[in-house]
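Give me the fold.
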Amino acid sequence: MSDELDPTLLRLFVEANEPLPGADFSAQLTAHLHRPPTWPGLAQSLRFAVRGALAGIMSGVVTPFRMGGGYVGAMIASAAALTLWITLQTP
């Protein structure tokens, strides 16, 4: 990526009457990105990850039952066949 200003982007900034971001903007952004993580932030991230995983699992469990009776029967039959096949494959 070159250091030259993009003429289209520069024109859009001029039309918006906004100054280009300067060194102070870059310094603030760098300081914000290099902050050490805090315990509440880590706990919140963990909570969101667990919620996302549980939502995905529940979606996978509930969706086949919403599709109708024929699909549930096929799902049960294929699960039984797969369980039997795996059981017979173990030594």
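The mean pLDDT is 82.
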